[in-house]
Amino acid sequence: MSRREFIKAAGMTAAGVMVGSLAGKQALGAPAPARVLGANDRINIGFIGVGGMGGGHLHGLKNKETDFNIVCAAVCDVWEKRKAEARGAAGCPESMVFGDYRKLLEQKDIDAVVVATPDHWHGQICIDAMQAGKHVYVEKPMTRTLDEALKMRETALANKMVVQVGSQGCTDAKWHTAGKAVRDGKIGKVLWAQGSYCRNNPHGEWNYGIDSDLTADTCDWKAWLGPARDIPFNPERYFRWRKYWDYGNGIIGDLWPHRLHPLMIAMDVMEFPKRVACLGADICNSDEGYGDKRDVADATMMVCEFPSGAMIYLAGSTVNEQGMA
Question: Can you point out the beta strands (E) in the chain?
């Protein structure tokens, strides 16, 4: 998207946040964007969550500041080490480094935010950002729960905010070419599609290394937990949150977006499913000897049926890399 297209889109309905007609509730109004942007104005971006993905986005956009006419203007994280690293990468002043994302959102000259926190924070931070007049790029999955997704869509529509969900595979032109062929009637009615995302990690998927620099004194643990249930400080949960239902959805939220979203584009199925069946289990106890036992499944299957009649079947595993062709 060009800068001019971005500015134009900022005044339009945020149609990209699509979760279908189930979101027909009263919209959540809020103030207009923090400042009105002209076509040549520089866009000031704040980064909320600057770990693996968030740090990657920060470095990537910092390298494109001149090309995109943007500024990596503010950073926020609950861990002091990451805050310091992010400040160095962004080159922003100490006054624009935050531990509380709400303080970042109070900054009137921030136009947009990149949200790359653990999944359990996505919904609330994005809603708060839009209500503060900020446009949003959020890592997939959009939210951890359906209710959060519906509320997030309402907020985007009410405030005319631009929201993009970061499923990288959706930008691959082949899926859009296929979807156009379906819309143009070049092939018959698409009935169903299948896909899989499978890995086989002998050390247990998502058992990332635990940095000893993270302590109860260097991390705002209460802020990290946020809407999740209160538990004592636990570095295992911090670094390996994808293993636990309190913070993520395992295969469903971390891997399947890379398959489900492109298939929906290719089939031209831009609608909310009417029926979904999903099952899974932790079969192999792959964490034994490498970390705490996970909550989420290591093998999962799902089928979605859409109002148009189209169906999508997905399989996923973190203990068997042989997926479906």
Answer: 43-48, 70-76, 97-98, 112-115, 135-139, 163-166, 192-198, 275-281, 299-305, 311-317
Of residues 139, 90, 136, 91, the one with CA closest to residue 112: 136
Strand partners, 193: 312
Separation between Cα atoms, residue 294 and residue 211, nearest integer Å: 19
Per the CB < 8 A criterion, the answer to whether 316 and 255 are in contact is yes
Amino acid letter at 45?
Answer: I
Q: What would the pLDDT profile of 92-121 be if each residue is shown by its tens digit? A: 999 999 999 999 999 999 999 999 999 999
Provide the edge-to-edge strand list for the sheet that holds 112-115: 97-98, 70-76, 43-48, 112-115, 135-139, 163-166
Domain locations along the chain: 3-166, 171-206+250-317
| CATH classification for the domain delimited by 171-206+250-317, as one of 1.10.1670.10, 3.40.50.970, 3.40.50.1000, 3.30.360.10 | 3.30.360.10
Distance CA 265, CA 193 (A): 11
Same fold, 3-166 and 171-206+250-317: no
Helices 257-266 and 173-183: crossing angle in degrees, nearest 10, is 30
CB 265 within 8 A of CB 169: no
The CATH H-level (homologous superfamily) assignment of domain 3-166 is: NAD(P)-binding Rossmann-like Domain (3.40.50.720)
Do residues 178 and 171 make contact, with C-beta atoms less than 8 angstroms apart?
no
Q: Which two tokens stand for residue 50?
A: 């600057």
- Dist. CA 197–CA 322, nearest whole Å: 9
Residues 6+ apart with CB under 8 A from 261: 140, 167, 169, 170
User: Could you read off the pLDDT of 239-275 as tens digits, one per residue?
Assistant: 999 999 999 999 999 999 999 999 999 999 999 999 9
> How far is Cα 117 from Cα 128, in angstroms, rounded to an integer?
14
In DSSP terms, which residues pair with 277 in a beta bridge?
A: 303
